[in-house]
Amino acid sequence: MRRHKHLFEDIVSFQNLLKAARLAQRGKRFKGSTARFNFQLERELWSLRRELLDKTYKPGKYRNFVIHEPKERLISAAPYRDRVVHHAIHNVLEPIFDPTFIHDSYATRKGKGTHAAIERFQSYAKKRPYVLKCDIQKYFPSISHAVLMRLIERKVACRDTLSLIETILESHDGAEVAASQPASQPASQP
């Protein structure tokens, strides 16, 4: 199995960070944090790049909130600046990991998505009368970071990239604590 080296240089390139900023702003262009970042886009990206290169980058605090669509879920949202970093990593690692995914994995994949998943389901539904619908409770907060890192290390040999991923995973630990606590009950209606 091939392990990829020298990925960090691609992750922190200005062109990749610019592409990541464009991807991170989709659907959020007019939010305050996005607008503030984009107002000084070039300066922000050079600053972010410098922090990544100097190994002084520290992820911000996640914003936790509960949604009720279709059921109650705790969402942990990273600050916009950190989402730029997440996209920068994704831009470089996606071509390495995507070929290893099963065909019927549809979330956040090129040429896949909700519509493709529905079409695939409909083709199966014509052939089989039964379906299993399930949900793994608190799935993302329950993922072992140690196991995840071992899986990533099977494909990635770039120490700087692995260190950056570990930094991001460690920054999410506070959100995991919040996620493990029962979500608040909705206010009762008069």
Give the biggest sheet: 2 strands, antiparallel
Q: Compute the CA-based radius of gyration.
A: 19 Å
Q: What distance lies between the first and last C-alpha atoms, to the nearest angstrom?
A: 61 Å
How large is the count of helical segments?
10
Average pLDDT reading:
87
Strand content: 5-15%
Residues in helix, %: 40-55%
**What's the β-strand tally?**
2
Q: Would you tell me the structural class of the helices and strands?
A: mainly alpha
In which order are the strands of the major sheet placed? 1-2
Give the H and E element order. Answer: HHHHEEHHHHHH
The gross shape turns out to be globular
Poorly predicted sequence stretches spanning 5 or more consecutive residues: 176-190
Description:
With 190 residues, the chain is mostly helical. It is built from 10 helices and 2 strands. It has helices spanning 8-11, 14-24, 32-39, 41-54, 80-97, 114-127, 139-142, 145-153, 159-171, 173-180; strands at 63-68, 72-77. Strands 1-2 form a two-stranded antiparallel sheet. Helix 8 runs antiparallel to helix 9. The radius of gyration is 19 Å and the shape is globular.
Which SSEs are present, and which pair or pack?
Layout: H1 8-11, H2 14-24, H3 32-39, H4 41-54, E1 63-68, E2 72-77, H5 80-97, H6 114-127, H7 139-142, H8 145-153, H9 159-171, H10 173-180
Antiparallel strand pairs: 1-2
